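Input record (one chain):
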Amino acid sequence: MAGMIAKKMDMCIMYLLLVLCAVSLLPVGLCLMLGAPAFVTYIVISAVSFMGMGFGSIFSIQILSYTQIVSPAGIVGKVIATVMAISMCAQPIGQAVYGLLLENLKGGEWAIVLGSAAISLGIALYSRVSFSRFRKLGVS
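The corresponding structure, as predicted from the sequence alone:
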Protein backbone atom coordinates (compact mmCIF):
# COMPACT_ATOMS: atom_id res chain seq x y z
CA MET A 1 0.00 0.00 0.00
CA ALA A 2 2.81 2.41 0.88
CA GLY A 3 4.41 1.73 -2.51
CA MET A 4 1.20 2.56 -4.35
CA ILE A 5 0.72 5.72 -2.33
CA ALA A 6 4.37 6.70 -2.77
CA LYS A 7 3.93 7.06 -6.52
CA LYS A 8 1.06 9.50 -5.96
CA MET A 9 2.48 11.41 -3.01
CA ASP A 10 4.65 14.47 -3.36
CA MET A 11 7.30 14.85 -0.63
CA CYS A 12 6.16 18.45 -0.18
CA ILE A 13 2.85 17.30 1.33
CA MET A 14 4.27 14.68 3.68
CA TYR A 15 3.44 16.95 6.60
CA LEU A 16 -0.23 16.16 5.94
CA LEU A 17 0.35 12.59 7.15
CA LEU A 18 1.67 14.05 10.40
CA VAL A 19 -1.37 16.33 10.61
CA LEU A 20 -3.65 13.30 10.17
CA CYS A 21 -1.79 11.46 12.95
CA ALA A 22 -2.25 14.42 15.28
CA VAL A 23 -5.91 14.89 14.39
CA SER A 24 -6.56 11.20 15.05
CA LEU A 25 -5.97 11.90 18.75
CA LEU A 26 -8.89 14.33 18.96
CA PRO A 27 -11.71 11.74 19.07
CA VAL A 28 -9.93 9.90 21.89
CA GLY A 29 -9.57 13.09 23.91
CA LEU A 30 -13.21 14.00 23.30
CA CYS A 31 -14.43 10.55 24.38
CA LEU A 32 -12.43 10.82 27.59
CA MET A 33 -13.51 14.41 28.21
CA LEU A 34 -17.21 13.70 27.66
CA GLY A 35 -17.15 10.51 29.70
CA ALA A 36 -18.37 8.26 26.89
CA PRO A 37 -19.28 4.68 27.82
CA ALA A 38 -16.31 2.34 28.11
CA PHE A 39 -17.24 0.26 25.06
CA VAL A 40 -17.69 3.35 22.87
CA THR A 41 -14.34 4.72 24.07
CA TYR A 42 -12.73 1.35 23.33
CA ILE A 43 -14.11 1.31 19.78
CA VAL A 44 -13.03 4.92 19.17
CA ILE A 45 -9.53 4.33 20.55
CA SER A 46 -9.16 1.15 18.46
CA ALA A 47 -10.41 2.75 15.23
CA VAL A 48 -8.44 5.99 15.42
CA SER A 49 -5.30 4.22 16.65
CA PHE A 50 -5.52 1.96 13.60
CA MET A 51 -5.83 4.99 11.32
CA GLY A 52 -3.14 6.99 13.11
CA MET A 53 -0.68 4.11 12.99
CA GLY A 54 -1.46 3.61 9.31
CA PHE A 55 -0.67 7.26 8.55
CA GLY A 56 2.45 7.07 10.72
CA SER A 57 3.66 3.90 9.01
CA ILE A 58 3.21 5.39 5.55
CA PHE A 59 5.11 8.49 6.68
CA SER A 60 7.97 6.39 8.10
CA ILE A 61 8.26 4.28 4.97
CA GLN A 62 8.29 7.35 2.74
CA ILE A 63 10.92 9.14 4.84
CA LEU A 64 13.17 6.09 5.10
CA SER A 65 12.88 5.50 1.34
CA TYR A 66 13.78 9.12 0.68
CA THR A 67 16.71 8.87 3.11
CA GLN A 68 17.99 5.83 1.22
CA ILE A 69 17.75 7.66 -2.08
CA VAL A 70 19.59 10.82 -1.00
CA SER A 71 22.26 9.20 1.18
CA PRO A 72 25.63 8.44 -0.40
CA ALA A 73 25.87 4.76 -1.33
CA GLY A 74 28.72 4.02 1.04
CA ILE A 75 26.95 5.21 4.17
CA VAL A 76 23.26 4.38 3.56
CA GLY A 77 23.29 1.75 6.30
CA LYS A 78 24.93 4.10 8.80
CA VAL A 79 22.48 6.91 8.05
CA ILE A 80 19.43 4.62 8.34
CA ALA A 81 20.82 3.08 11.55
CA THR A 82 21.33 6.54 13.05
CA VAL A 83 17.82 7.67 12.11
CA MET A 84 16.31 4.49 13.55
CA ALA A 85 18.41 4.71 16.74
CA ILE A 86 17.29 8.28 17.40
CA SER A 87 13.68 7.29 16.80
CA MET A 88 13.90 4.25 19.05
CA CYS A 89 15.61 6.20 21.83
CA ALA A 90 12.90 8.87 21.75
CA GLN A 91 10.09 6.36 22.27
CA PRO A 92 10.89 5.34 25.87
CA ILE A 93 11.39 9.01 26.78
CA GLY A 94 7.91 9.77 25.45
CA GLN A 95 6.45 6.79 27.28
CA ALA A 96 8.06 7.92 30.54
CA VAL A 97 6.65 11.43 30.12
CA TYR A 98 3.18 10.02 29.44
CA GLY A 99 3.53 7.75 32.48
CA LEU A 100 4.42 10.67 34.74
CA LEU A 101 1.59 12.80 33.38
CA LEU A 102 -0.97 10.01 33.72
CA GLU A 103 0.19 9.27 37.26
CA ASN A 104 0.06 12.91 38.36
CA LEU A 105 -3.02 14.07 36.47
CA LYS A 106 -5.50 11.32 37.33
CA GLY A 107 -8.92 12.26 36.01
CA GLY A 108 -7.37 14.61 33.47
CA GLU A 109 -6.42 11.98 30.90
CA TRP A 110 -8.45 13.84 28.30
CA ALA A 111 -6.28 16.93 28.82
CA ILE A 112 -3.13 14.89 28.30
CA VAL A 113 -4.47 13.42 25.05
CA LEU A 114 -5.76 16.75 23.74
CA GLY A 115 -2.51 18.45 24.78
CA SER A 116 -0.56 15.79 22.90
CA ALA A 117 -2.78 16.36 19.87
CA ALA A 118 -2.15 20.11 20.02
CA ILE A 119 1.62 19.72 20.36
CA SER A 120 1.71 17.10 17.57
CA LEU A 121 -0.38 19.31 15.32
CA GLY A 122 1.95 22.23 15.95
CA ILE A 123 4.98 20.11 15.07
CA ALA A 124 3.24 18.77 11.96
CA LEU A 125 2.33 22.25 10.76
CA TYR A 126 5.82 23.53 11.51
CA SER A 127 7.30 20.64 9.50
CA ARG A 128 5.45 22.01 6.47
CA VAL A 129 8.27 24.56 6.15
CA SER A 130 10.87 21.79 5.99
CA PHE A 131 8.91 19.71 3.51
CA SER A 132 8.29 22.75 1.29
CA ARG A 133 12.05 22.89 0.73
CA PHE A 134 11.82 19.64 -1.22
CA ARG A 135 10.06 21.51 -4.03
CA LYS A 136 12.95 23.99 -4.20
CA LEU A 137 15.38 21.09 -4.43
CA GLY A 138 13.33 19.50 -7.21
CA VAL A 139 12.43 16.46 -5.10
CA SER A 140 8.97 14.98 -5.38
